[in-house]
Amino acid sequence: MNGPGQTQPDYGLLACDVFADELVALGGESPPWRALTFLEMGLHDHPDQLRQQVQSSIAELEATPGISRIVLAYGLCGNGLLGVRAGRVPLVIPRAHDCIAMLLGSAARRQALMRDVPGGYFYSPGWIRGGRVPGPERDAYLRDLFQERYPDDPELVEDLLEADRDTFSHYHTALYVDVTQDDGARNKCQQCARSLSWSFRMLEGDPAWLRDLIWGQWDAERFLTVPPGASIALDGEALIAR
Strand 11-16 vs strand 69-73: parallel, antiparallel, or unpaired? Predict the structure, then answer.
């Protein structure tokens, strides 16, 4: 698979739906995967559930005729993918700790931004669509959740909301990264920044890493291939197969 001209896809793609818009755009009218499965981005908050869902989805994709490998459009996601095992076919996974690095084009660029803007919080179209990033939609979601759990204790609900807001108190800049030119998501990010009294900074996304993931440009520097029977592991900060 060397690019959009390839006509015989042979892999299954398992992706976090935070990448839904990007994968549709980069895959084009004749996408390079034989089968595609999305998992809900909220699993990021529950690493054990994420690991179980990913492992189960790998088994399902392996049953698809013609599948010779499974590609994961995931970072490590809070170590939620550690321990995920390849079955009868190899796995391919980016050497990324999270999706933002992939949207920025490299882990080095993400690290540089974290160093240069230590109070920056990353947003992307997918995370904004999910409604869990700091801002009005997160507040509304959590208010409904807490009110359902504690219907007779409005004071506790307010305390829990305030505690959640406090977890973001050291941030001051919304860093918006986008590779799809999504004006609606950008506007929502700006609204989030205004509601939090944060600054807004637009970052130009780089689709190369994600594009190469789906089009089969799997160099060893940016991608890990996990052979059948091995699992995803860490050696220090390095992603390895074990």
Answer: parallel
pTM of structure:
0.91
Q: Which residues contact residue 183 at a Cβ distance below 8 angstroms, ignoring those fewer than 6 apart? A: none
- Within 8 A by CB and 6+ apart from 237, the residues are none
Backbone angles phi, psi at 30, to 5 degrees: -125, 80
Predicted confidence (pLDDT) per residue in 213-228, tens digit: 999 999 999 999 999 9
With DSSP H G I counted as helix, E B as strand and the rest as coil, what are the percentages for the chain, rounded to 5? 40, 20, 35
Concatenating the DSSP letter of every residue in 129-197 gives HHT-STTHHHHHHHHHHHHHH-TT-HHHHHHHHHHHHHTTTT--EEEEEESS--HHHHHHHHHHHHHHT
Q: Which residues pair with 43 in a beta bridge?
A: none
Cα three-residue angle 19-21-22, rounded to 5 degrees: 65
Q: Are 59 and 85 in contact (CB under 8 A)?
A: no
The model's pLDDT over 45-88, given as tens digits with 9 standing for 90+, comes to 899 999 999 999 999 999 999 999 999 999 998 899 999 999 99
Task: For residues 70 and 152, give the distance between their C-alpha atoms in angstroms, rounded to a whole number.
Answer: 48
Neighbours of 133 (CB within 10 A): 19
